[in-house]
Write a structure and sequence with these properties.
0% strand
Length: 219
């Protein structure tokens, strides 16, 4: 039953996204234009650490915008309609899956834009892509939960930024260490511990969402 609800809610979000392509195109334009500005500033030549930092900074802002707008219309009169159709667990997991899919696509397109304008200084492309996908999944899960909490308050984007920064920071440190391994050493043995830490963090985020979101749902 809950799987059917999640599927229906995910399809609804995807259909809305297809009917409003300007929202996704706007985020894609932000990614490409930001990378192009970096290309102009650095004359197309950046060192490895700068390349890595720019990638995660740009992806983080794209993730915040993506997760923040996913609840922009949900906690209004439409929320009462959803209340009669699905439970809180299905609702929040559906939102998480939608943002995971959206941010994963953006992270891969952003990676392509970086390769076109700034090159690719990494030793292992496959390891960096794995880290990029894992990072986008984690950012989507975490920021969706924070956006759901912040959506209940006014000025939810401001509250979301305040709540997400201390939570996102440790995760970003893990991702930076993982991608630096891909950029310099490219040893899979060194990537195992960060990946396990990320998986444990993802499990904790999902558990927190399932436990905490029902209280917001009933408000």
């Amino acid at each position: 039953m809950i799987i059917n609800q999640i599927t229906v809610l995910l399809q609804k979000d995807l259909n809305l996204e297809l009917k409003r392509p300007f929202l996704f195109n706007g985020m894609l334009l932000y990614l490409v234009s930001t990378v192009f500005v970096c290309y102009l500033v650095f004359d197309g030549i950046v060192d490895t650490k700068t390349w890595n930092a720019l990638y995660w900074i740009i992806l983080l802002f794209a993730a915040v915008n993506s997760a923040g707008r996913s609840f922009s219309e949900e906690f209004s009169r439409r929320h009462l309609y959803y209340y009669t159709l699905a439970g809180p667990t299905a609702f929040i997991i559906g939102k998480m899956l939608y943002n995971v899919l959206l941010l994963t696509i953006l992270s891969l397109l952003g990676f392509l834009a970086f390769m076109v304008f700034l090159g690719f200084p990494a030793e292992s492309k496959s390891m960096f892509l794995l880290a990029a996908v894992a990072g986008s999944i984690g950012l989507a899960l975490l920021l969706t939960l924070v956006a759901g909490i912040a959506a209940r308050a006014e000025h939810n984007f401001t509250l979301m930024a305040i709540l997400s920064f201390p939570i996102v920071l440790p995760k970003l440190l893990i991702l930076i260490n993982l991608t630096q391994n891909a950029l310099y050493e490219a040893q899979w043995s060194l990537a195992i511990k960060p990946l396990i830490a990320l998986l444990a963090m993802y499990f904790l985020i999902i558990v927190l969402a399932v436990v905490l979101f029902p209280y917001l749902w009933k408000e």
